[in-house]
Amino acid sequence: PTVTSASAPALLDDGRVLLISGSEPLPTPPFFSFTRLVQAYDPANDTWSTVAPVPNSRFYPSVAQTLPDGRVAFLGFGEVSGIDLYDPDLDSWKSPVAMGRSSALHTASLL
Fold it and tell me: Which of 21, 48, 63, 65 has the most CB atoms around its CB within 10 Å?
């Protein structure tokens, strides 16, 4: 796997764990860069893979929440304000929900 920090984890229905966005270390200032990278860990096979990159990178703190239909909602402080939705069946992202302004220190609760 690629080393990242402040990535948002999400458990998929198939048992894989996604690590979404965050930052990658750099050897010189500013010492990190935001990433759109999304990695999936399969504990059944002890393997890592890369899936479709998130359209908008986010940084700490960001939140990922698996929804009842299996999609993953992802939001947090970053390039744009809004919620990105990942569909693991299609390995694709959509950015359907815009927020009026940027915000930080998110939490998510499934109701």
Answer: 21
3-class secondary structure, 49: strand
Cis (ω within 30 of 0) for the bond into 61? yes
The DSSP bridge pattern shows strands 47-50 and 92-98 to be unpaired
Q: Which runs of consecutive H residues, i.e. helices, occur in the chain?
A: none
- pTM strictly above 0.85: no
**What amino acid occupies position 11?**
L
Query: N- to C-terminal Cα distance for the chain?
Result: 33
Q: Is 31 left (phi over 0), alpha (psi -120 to 50) or beta?
A: left
Residue whose token pair is 């990942």: 86
